[in-house]
Amino acid sequence: MPDTTHEPAAPRDTAIAAARETLESGRFREDLARRVAMPTISREEEHWPELERYLREEMMPLYERLGFSCEILRHRKAPGPFLLAERIEDPARPTVLMYGHGDVVTGIPEQWSEGLDPWEMTERDGRWFGRGTADNKGQHSVNLAALEAVLAVRGRLGFNLKYLVEMGEEYGSPALDAICADHKERLAADVLIASDGPRMSLEDPTIFLGSRGGINLHLEVVAREGFHHSGNWGGLLANPGVELSHAIAALIGPTGECLVPELTPGEIPQNVRDALKDCTITPAEGDPPLDPWWGAPGLTQAERVYAWSTLEVMEIEVGNLAKPLYAIPPWARARLQLRHPVGVDTSDVEPAVRRTLDAAGHERVKIVPAPDASFPASRSDLDGPWVRFAAASLERTAGRAPVILPNLGGSLPNAIFTDILGLPTIWVPHSYPGCRQHGADEHLPVSIVREGLGLMAGLFWDLGETDVP
Questions:
Q1: How far is CA 3 from CA 6, 7, 9, 45, 467, in A?
Q2: Tens digit of each residue's pLDDT (9 = 90 or more) over 18-62
Q3: Omega before 407 cis (within 30°)?
Q4: Interhelix angle for 137-154 vs 27-36, to 10°?
Q5: Where are the alpha helices (DSSP H) in 205-269?
Q6: Which helix (DSSP H) or strand (DSSP E) does residue 379 occupy?
Q7: Which NCBIfam families does the record cross-reference, listed alphabetically (predicted)?
Q8: CATH of the domain spanning 213-271+294-368, picked from 3.30.70.360, 3.40.50.2300, 3.30.300.30, 3.40.30.10
């Protein structure tokens, strides 16, 4: 047999190793820590200068070093600018559009564990803690480091790449649709490949093809002005807290089932059931244990999260628990959130809720305008060629097949890419459900970074080969 001990590594493997070397050398950690230190909070106006600084000081120099042309795009609705970076190598080759966001939610430093700070990246137990490590600075940093490795080994990508970086996703992406519509021809591509949201679990490489929609519903009962002594007026004055509680019970069952049929898809497509039949949701260490009795009956837990609707109470307010008055409150308010898959008529959500409340005798409960942004549901074709291509690439690198989800359980502006730009969408997340995104102690496991660098370098390498959809 020939001696293969000293045979050179295949170029694809070399690119994967080069991507992972950025982690081993400490350079990736240094880059991400510098980005985390920028408080790019898009919902706090005093931090809006940081949004532009992130693009000009962190993103643009990197893209330009990698041979991209860069342009700052603006829209009056957005809290910060957009960056469009382009590297067009050959118009005859496939064109990929990538997306990421550099803004974050507020830091809430007072809620973080002792010794942790949202703006100083800290490593503990194999995890990097800091605001944006998981959502989304860490994820687009993985993709950029993998791109750099492929360019270093091959000398070119072998495909055309357009990269759109948003600085207002946590603000609700108020101008992303307008930017994509205004620059539709310039953003034309064959596929969107992006990274956001969590994997299905800590250990499983994952692809998802869209996201559930998100709609907020604000309910309110205002009975009168002022609090009134419960001994003198109890039994004589209607209690808004009680009224609102019964109204919510008309919408959501005692085990969490959404009771308004119009808010659900009615049925789950067979190919979606097939995709989820082997998916098991397993909490990681530190995650809360699951409640198998909660949610829509007759569905698996994976179907409840990825293929059905959930209507949840996010906040409810009546009186003041910290400073009780022992009086009947004058008003009660609640914010409910609907997460729904493709197949729900969103124009009928609020009317259906109104009909249900009225039918149950809760005419006094008002649906008030919700200032929160909403996201429509979207899902690319589970059987499409780009899904098969990406799954095969990830399996080749990881040595095991990735989990393929029809959509994320949460909400992303995916519909903008499918509906306005007409693109199939492939999301390869580099986080996991227990990452604490949007809360205190947000973190990113180093193991996911290591695997993600290899997965993306392999995917980018394969995109430069000839056999591409």
A1: 8, 8, 14, 64, 31
A2: 999 999 999 999 999 999 999 999 999 999 999 999 999 999 999
A3: no
A4: 140
A5: 230-233, 240-251
A6: strand 378-379
A7: PRK07079.1
A8: 3.30.70.360
